[in-house]
Design a protein that fits this description.
Structural class of chain B: mainly alpha
Radius of gyration of chain A: 28 Å
Shape of chain A: globular
Helix content of chain A: 55-70%
Shape of chain B: flat
Radius of gyration of chain B: 16 Å
Strand order of the largest sheet of chain A: 1-5-4
Number of helices of chain B: 3
Oligomer: heterodimer
Largest sheet of chain A: 3 strands, antiparallel
Strand content of chain A: under 5%
Number of helices of chain A: 25
Helix content of chain B: over 70%
Chain lengths: 875, 88
């Protein structure tokens, strides 16, 4: 598909890959989740009207608190910001879209469906009850049997799906900002909102990978019965380390986009450039880096030792210093400027005031001794709402600020100010009393009777705050149909490129190609910017404005695809079904979906490239493969009929989802979807490579954290256990050194052959390309066969399974995740082989890049094994 | 891209180093465990660097790509080292 249907059709919003459409979808969807989580918040406040509760039972209250936290943090705050980022970042940097439009659409759909899965979890016997921090081991089935219910697992897996969405988004934004800036736009000069998004996605790339690792381990403890978090050798500490390594950067992930928006708004309505811009940017970068070395201040009341507590107290207090600089820069900008009290400005300043209070009260919690007193009280609740919800206030201001750009209409100023007044009073009435009643214990609804009045005031504030949003919904909806049209820029002082195009912008964003090469914004092949004020100096940042010849002129960019939606529907079915599986069925839907993938390769390949022998071969292989799997399934479940009869409905739901997902992934792979790279763009510091290669490397950066966290968990547990005794005590009779050695040779050989496939593709040799791709497949197949022999020996012959002991858990899960990567690689190889067979890669050098990108993934899988081999087989 | 010959040499060296690791397990692990651990992990690091440098072409790519990978590595080392030390 290529062209987009009109906006008035439903189809447009299902197939669009355009960044502005997806930005709007993100914003509207995040507001939906705001309403859901907001209603849950009001239930909490009603429950807190008097000590002992009013309307909810204990378990229900726990579910409501947990879902409120998860939905607000993950499905409202960040996506709300990324709706704006989707819409604005390409405009601000002079690009016509994000680097990978279909991945962007997939990010959105995975986000939506993961959120819906969280809501569905309520109706699957109850959702997660362990708080948004999901503290293990208290929430694993061994300790709280009710948690074995389906909804608990759905919530964990839904969160993992959200992380996948976030990772795709991070890769996309990083590639876009680094590779698609308009000519002459140096990195240091990109608008502050885009700068804040850049730093945010860096943090997201690494932090969310740690969360993905944590949710994989937790999901495994839930569904398979591994012992990661129930083991006495640091299991509970392991969760807190993994979670807070993600969790503290998450605070800034939520706040940074708001900070960037705040800076833009304050600049505009103070009528001047921000004071100390360079230092403001440096301070943001410092916070982004420091955010990864403060996580243990969330663990002062655990068993970590005093020296490390002291170190983390220092780093925590240290991170407040760059924030001080940023706050003073914003204040001084207002002091030096001529302030105009428009609605966006009110929200920005209100947010700043709220954040200052949230920041100062956070420093208290960063001090070890004070934290001993405050931890587990309403002080923490008040503090993090002042810190994190301040970003919601700023982002609401951002919506007012950019609403005219997005819609071409001006909102009602009076209603905007009324909204602010209600929101600001409501917010403070809601959260400030919590500081007063701080001795109320957190997470429960019993508190000292003297605090009732404060909790009742907070409840009134909560309803007032909620009411204020209704004013906004009315204002923005009514204004959309008003006749208050605006031009390119409704504001007197602006400094970024989005104000130099029409409101709303055209599909390709600009008429002509934006360029900052002259020191101010110009359009090559279009009209001069109207109202655009370029901030940049007339120089590039050491890089070259790269000119690429990828054929952008001869073919129009594609904007529409069904596949991202279809892949995500498959993922949704998997997530809502997987929690209901018996342990012996959990993996089977995915295993059964593999032959379907092979069959779809044959069918789709024949459609796209014309029917060839390879497609017939794939169809035949898929039938044989499926038959083989049915045989193993029947052995595993005491007969084929018995196996399918005893499977639950959720098994078939998960299977359906997996098969749909496979079909859609193949369809996406074969779809002709043209995304030209910009012909003239600033690409420092990643010149001389393609967008896809950079995207692949960014993904690998995230995967390093994912595997690193698993290996790190192994190291942590083993040190706790006693390094040398760890393997000596394992319940097997002998290590599998030989299979590990053989597999290392197999993977090294397959790395070698995939490099050779690339060499021969570039030489135009069909035989060489096909031959070495085939050998790579054979090498990886040998790896898996050898692995299955190894597992059979350990599991069936020696009686050492994944749930036998902690050693078994870490061994099977870590090497199993690696094997899953190998299987994914083999599926991609089958696709590459089919394409190479029918003429791709070796006929045109350009397409040989696909083999190179696959090779990057494959070599990474090899590198991971180079560490698993010594750690799990030798040492 | 490097020549096929160079890729072949790298493959042979990587395989030889793997064999060396296996040999160390056989002869050194019981008598000098920590020395063996240091040698084996150092060899793995060298092998990984060779794969990244030549097979993944990091030697020829913009240096910033190496920094992306190193940033991830640094993050995970910080997590593992901090977590391990915190309960020591």
């Amino acid at each position: 598909m290529g062209d987009l249907p009109p906006k008035s059709t439903v189809k447009r919003w299902l197939v669009t890959t355009n960044h502005k459409d997806i930005g709007v979808l993100y914003i509207l969807t995040s507001i939906f989740f705001l309403v859901v989580a907001g209603v849950l918040a009001l239930l909490i406040r009603l429950q807190m009207l008097e000590s002992g509760g009013t309307i909810l039972g204990g378990g229900e209250y726990n579910q409501v608190v947990t879902a409120h936290g998860l939905l607000m943090v993950f499905w409202f705050l960040s996506p709300f910001a990324f709706g704006l980022a989707n819409y604005l970042v390409p405009l601000q940097i002079g690009a016509d879209d994000l680097a990978f439009p279909r991945l962007n659409a997939m990010s959105y759909w995975l986000y939506l469906f993961s959120g819906l899965a969280m809501v569905v979890a309520f109706f699957q016997g109850g959702t997660h009850e362990g708080g948004w921090t999901l503290y293990a081991p208290l929430n694993v089935p061994n300790f709280v049997p009710r948690i074995a219910e389906m909804g608990e697992t759905t919530a964990v897996v839904g969160l993992a799906l959200f992380v996948v969405s976030v990772t795709l988004g991070s890769v996309n934004f990083l590639t876009t900002i680094y590779r698609m800036r308009a000519e002459g736009l140096r990195m240091r000069d990109i608008p502050l909102f885009s700068m804040s998004i850049l730093l945010t996605v860096w943090m997201m790339l690494f932090a969310f990978a740690a969360l993905l690792a944590a949710t994989i381990l937790l999901g495994s403890d839930h569904m398979l019965g591994t012992h990661y978090f129930t083991d006495i050798h640091g299991g509970s500490m392991l969760w807190t380390h993994l979670f807070w390594f993600f969790g503290h950067p998450e605070v800034y992930i939520v706040f940074f986009p708001a900070l960037g928006a705040m800076a833009e708004i304050i600049q505009t309505f103070s009528g001047r450039r921000i004071v100390g811009r360079k230092w403001f940017v440096i301070a943001m970068a410092l916070v982004a880096i420091q955010s990864f070395i403060v996580w243990m201040h969330h663990m002062f009341l655990t068993a970590i030792n005093l020296p490390i507590k002291t170190v983390f107290m220092v780093t925590t207090v240290g991170i407040s210093l760059p924030f001080d600089l940023m706050v003073f820069a914003l204040i001084y900008t207002m002091v030096k400027g001529r302030v105009r009290w428009k609605t966006p400005f009110l929200f920005a300043v209100g947010s700043l005031l709220i954040f200052i209070l949230g920041g100062i009260t956070g420093v208290f919690l960063g001090a070890i001794v004070l934290d001993y007193q405050f931890r587990g009280t309403y002080w923490v609740v008040a503090h993090f709402h002042y810190a994190m919800a301040s970003s919601a206030v700023a982002l609401v201001g951002a919506v007012y600020y950019w609403y005219p750009k997005m819609t071409g209409k001006m909102y009602n100023e009076f209603l905007g100010k009324a909204h602010f007044a209600l929101a600001f009073v409501g917010f403070n009435l809601l959260y400030f009393p919590m500081f007063v009643a701080w001795e109320s214990p957190r997470r429960v609804f019993d508190f000292q009777s003297g605090f009732s009045i404060w909790h009742q005031i907070a409840t009134v504030g909560g309803f007032l705050f909620a009411l204020s949003f209704l004013v906004m919904f009315y204002n923005l909806t009514k204004s959309l149909y008003s006749d208050r049209h605006v031009g390119d820029s409704p504001w007197a002082y602006v400094g970024s490129a989005e104000w130099a195009t029409t409101s709303p912008p055209p599909l390709e964003n600009f008429v002509g190609t934006p360029s900052f090469a002259s020191g101010r914004l110009n359009f090559i092949g279009g009209a001069e910017a109207d109202g655009g004020v370029a901030e940049s100096e007339p120089a590039t940042d050491g890089g070259v404005a790269a000119s690429t010849a990828t054929g952008g002129h001869d073919r129009h960019a594609d904007h529409a695809s069904w596949w991202p939606l279809l892949v995500s529907i498959g993922a949704l079915l998997v997530v809502v079904g997987i929690g209901g599986q018996a342990t012996s069925y959990v993996l089977w839907p995915f295993v059964f979906s593999l032959p379907f993938f092979v069959a779809f390769l044959g069918i789709q390949g024949a459609r796209r490239d014309g029917r060839a022998a390879i497609h017939n071969l794939y169809l035949l292989l898929s039938i044989l493969f499926f038959g083989g799997l049915l045989y193993v399934f029947s052995l595993h479940h005491g007969g084929l009929a018995e196996g399918f009869q005893n499977a639950s409905m959720t098994f078939y739901l998960t299977l359906t989802g997996a098969v749909i997902g496979m079909y859609a992934l193949v369809g996406m792979g074969y779809e002709s979807f043209h995304v030209p790279e910009p012909e003239l763009s600033e690409q420092w510091p990643f010149e001389g490579i393609t967008n896809t290669k950079l995207g692949m490397w960014m993904f690998l950066g995230s995967d390093i954290i994912l595997f690193g966290a698993l290996i790190g968990s192994y190291v942590f547990i083993r040190i706790q256990y006693g390094w040398v005794d760890f393997l000596h005590d394992a319940a097997y009779t002998h290590k599998a050194v030989w299979p590990g050695l053989v597999n290392t040779y197999a993977l090294l050989a397959s790395s070698f052959t995939v490099v050779l496939a690339l060499v021969y593709a570039r030489r135009g040799s069909r035989r060489g390309t096909l031959g070495f791709l085939g050998l790579t497949f054979v090498g990886s197949a040998l790896f898996l066969v050898n692995k299955s022999v190894e597992w059979t020996d350990l599991w069936l012959d020696q009686g050492w399974a994944y749930n036998t002991d902690i050693q078994g858990s870490v061994y099977y899960l870590t090497t199993g995740l690696h094997a899953a990567h190998v299987i994914v690689g083999m599926l991609i190889l089958l696709f590459l082989i089919a394409r190479a067979y029918t003429g791709a890669y070796w006929e045109e050098d350009e397409e040989a890049h696909s083999i190179e990108y696959f090779g990057l993934y494959w070599h990474f899988v090899d590198i991971v094994w180079l560490f698993l081999f010594p750690l799990f087989y030798i040492l | 891209m490097a020549s096929i010959k160079l890729y072949g040499i790298i493959f042979v060296v990587l395989s030889a180093l793997t064999t060396a690791q296996f040999g160390i397990e056989a002869v050194l692990i019981d008598d000098a465990y920590w020395v063996a651990l240091g040698i084996v992990l150092t060899i793995s690091t060298v092998k990984a660097a060779a794969v990244a440098g030549w097979y993944m072409h990091l030697k020829e790519e913009p240096r910033a790509l190496t920094y992306v990978a190193l940033a991830g590595l640094l993050g995970i080392i910080a997590l593992t080292a901090g977590a391990a030390y915190s309960v020591s």
